[in-house]
Amino acid sequence: MQDLDQSNTSSNLGHIRIVMVNTTLPANIGSALRAMKTMEISQLVLVAPKTYPHPDIDALAAGATDLIDKIKIVDTLEEAIEDCHLVFGTSARSRTIPWPLLDVRPAAELALKNITEHQQEVAIVFGREDRGLTNEELALANFHMTIPVNSAYGVLNVAQAIQIVCYELRMASLNICSAETTNTSTDKMPVTDQADMVWDEPLVTQKQMQEFYPHMEKMLEDIEFLDPQNPRLLPLRLRRLFGRIQLDRMEYNLLRGVFSRVQAMSHGTWKNNNNHNED
Amino acid sequence: MQDLDQSNTSSNLGHIRIVMVNTTLPANIGSALRAMKTMEISQLVLVAPKTYPHPDIDALAAGATDLIDKIKIVDTLEEAIEDCHLVFGTSARSRTIPWPLLDVRPAAELALKNITEHQQEVAIVFGREDRGLTNEELALANFHMTIPVNSAYGVLNVAQAIQIVCYELRMASLNICSAETTNTSTDKMPVTDQADMVWDEPLVTQKQMQEFYPHMEKMLEDIEFLDPQNPRLLPLRLRRLFGRIQLDRMEYNLLRGVFSRVQAMSHGTWKNNNNHNED
């Protein structure tokens, strides 16, 4: 589904920049680039990085080195966000200034809504490894954003936090795009792609299932598992069981084939090699 | 908001285990523990890890070393999941067997729903760094789970993937807890009220299903529906089909009873009234 609107997704996500302030460890910059690229976000702005450039950045950004060429380096956070409409400052909950605070999911939804509807430029700002953003820096944000972590152990490192934020931004983008394409949904079961196997069979209809259940019950009568005079709860249980699955056409034909084979055996019309009676 | 129901969250998340198969790099195990702890998930099971123990695990798991003591080591994936009701195999979309596939968000919602309503045990299985899970391992899962990444660069490493999956599990748990404060949920399967019917049977575990499939296949051999020399895709299709259902104990016994009856008929050890041969 999301593959259909890849281009919209990337153009939406193109309005987002990740800003890292005063980062100390080059490895965190490399990991951030990789996290960003997996989610199709490509603009990183570094505010006065402590160590840049550095080979660890390239090493950790394996496969995302094209984003290194796009990195912008600036001296202050003000410069990093000056052309943005919407700025989120990330913060651990406990030690921040009072400010409008959003969890990352609604924050991402707000960001994508503003990008889609108003072509806004959005920045997500991450602080230093050891002490985050200063109160002055946090005051430059429209909103503060937090990731709901285990309160007894709230120590996501900056690259992990960027991974989750970028993931939520991508999810918000995909959700907006799929809502936009008026949901070209199919009645097919979503399965793993594999071109040479056709597994995405259409699901059978209730009408077909109304032939399936009597067939199964007749088979169970034939093997004397079901007493038609006293079926008890068996037919109901089987409807409940197979009603939960939603069979696809292949599975439906397969099971009906099994029923027919069992019936043929019970009628003696299938020459079973185990019996060696007649041939 | 989520602070109110922290205790419910942690008890829900206590039903989840992360399973890493054949992990090569100790650093990935350490990072996984840290990612888990930030999201309050504490059970890691390692299936035949390449290097364990190792000081890099402790180093990367900074602050999450209490989870190291809880790690379980097993030889096979079957052992890791034998007491689980619901198993998700993580896979990159492109190179896996066809199987019911869920994005990580709906997968996490399903997991937490089944934990909350049925006290299920849930496993999320992650594969090798270089080549993921084998098709045989993927076939042990009820569902495959994927993270919707940039299709041009789908290279989340295993620790990053675990971070996102644990985050979504925690979000699903927090959402359920906040919804629960108004709902008085029961631990029974939601069915139409009818006092004299006991429908809320416990669901069977993966270990029981590992007896179910061979029984079904033997039965299909006996009626010559399955050729053991050339089973083609049939065993896989049946695993996929019944893996979607999650049988309860009653249904499980019922189906195994059917298999045994069919076998007895095919062996001529069941006196079938339709045949009128011997009695």
From TrEMBL, chains A, B:
Residues 16-167 form the tRNA/rRNA methyltransferase SpoU type domain. It is found in: Cytoplasm. The gene is trmJ. It is an enzyme of class 2 (transferase). Keywords: Cytoplasm, Methyltransferase, S-adenosyl-L-methionine, Transferase, tRNA processing. It catalyses: uridine(32) in tRNA + S-adenosyl-L-methionine = 2'-O-methyluridine(32) in tRNA + S-adenosyl-L-homocysteine + H(+); cytidine(32) in tRNA + S-adenosyl-L-methionine = 2'-O-methylcytidine(32) in tRNA + S-adenosyl-L-homocysteine + H(+). GO terms for biological process: tRNA nucleoside ribose methylation. One of its GO terms (cellular component) is cytosol. GO terms for molecular function: RNA binding; tRNA (cytidine(32)-2'-O)-methyltransferase activity; tRNA (cytidine(32)/uridine(32)-2'-O)-methyltransferase activity. It comes from Acinetobacter nectaris CIP 110549. This is tRNA (cytidine/uridine-2'-O-)-methyltransferase TrmJ. Its EC number is 2.1.1.200. The lineage of its organism: Bacteria, Pseudomonadati, Pseudomonadota, Gammaproteobacteria, Moraxellales. Catalyzes the formation of 2'O-methylated cytidine (Cm32) or 2'O-methylated uridine (Um32) at position 32 in tRNA. Belongs to the class IV-like SAM-binding methyltransferase superfamily. RNA methyltransferase TrmH family. Homodimer.
